[in-house]
Write a structure and sequence with these properties.
- The chain has two domains: 66 residues, Orthogonal Bundle (Arc Repressor Mutant, subunit A); 138 residues, Four Helix Bundle (Hemerythrin (Met), subunit A) (Up-down Bundle).
- The protein is 68% helix and 4% strand.
- Strands 1-2 form a two-stranded antiparallel ribbon.
- It starts with 16 loop residues before the first helix and ends with a helix.
Length: 223
């Protein structure tokens, strides 16, 4: 008897247990649900997902390679923290990558692309739930780079953003960070509509480094 193949899932394309666990823990770190320095107990994670410790260890080793987790003697895996110089360097990398991404994207942008970016810009403006600001900020920024058709570059930018999203969430809530970001978003979008790639790139670069300086000031004065 032949087995009908329609609707059969591609098991080879399905994520492994370690990949599912990795995404779960990474998301918890990125969103701030897990604070820096918080322990990640392998037995608790294994019980949560009803698996052995093997896929948990695999996930944690990958997260260590990505910089989200460190292993400490007598403590095991803990959420990695970033020093102020490390945060500054990551924001600098963001500025370099994203200013180049928008420079490459603008010549390929259609009116539909610009309208989609404007919709995301308005969504960021209108959102009152502070927990969503970082997510909507990424939605707007990424919409400006997609027309460049550089998926590897966009993936790299996403990875760099993940490293500092928990800090960006803080920055957007201090010293009118959301309002300032919103104003600068509209300036960037206006440069895109004018097809001025160099101006847009400069605005993106300054926008990211300005956010970094605001965050650094906050970190220096926190108790």
């Amino acid at each position: 008897m032949s087995i009908p193949l329609s609707g059969v899932p591609d098991l080879g394309a399905m994520p492994t247990a370690s990949e599912v666990i990795l995404r779960h823990i990474r998301s918890a770190i990125v969103t701030g649900a897990l604070d820096e320095g918080a322990p990640i107990r392998q037995d608790e994670v294994a019980a949560l997902f009803n698996v052995s410790k093997i896929p948990v260890r695999e996930a944690l080793k990958q997260l260590e390679a990505e910089g989200f987790v460190t292993f400490q003697r007598n403590r095991g895996a803990v959420v990695a923290s970033l020093s102020e110089p490390e945060i500054a360097q990551i924001f600098e990398v963001r500025a370099i990558l994203e200013s180049n991404a928008i420079r490459l994207s603008i010549p390929e942008m259609t009116e539909a692309d610009l309208d989609a970016a404007e919709t995301r810009c308005k969504a960021f403006d209108a959102e009152t739930d502070v927990s969503r600001w970082a997510e909507l900020n990424w939605d707007f920024h990424s919409s400006l780079y997609e027309a460049g058709h550089r998926p590897y570059l966009l993936q790299m930018i996403r990875s760099v953003n993940d490293r500092v999203e928990r800090y960006l969430r803080v920055q957007l809530t201090i010293s009118g960070g959301h309002e300032i970001a919103s104003k600068e978003h509209w300036q960037i979008l206006a440069a895109c509509r004018a097809r001025d790639a160099e101006k847009a790139a400069a605005l993106v670069y300054d926008h990211i480094l300005s956010a970094c300086k605001s965050l650094q000031t906050h970190l220096q004065h926190r108790p």
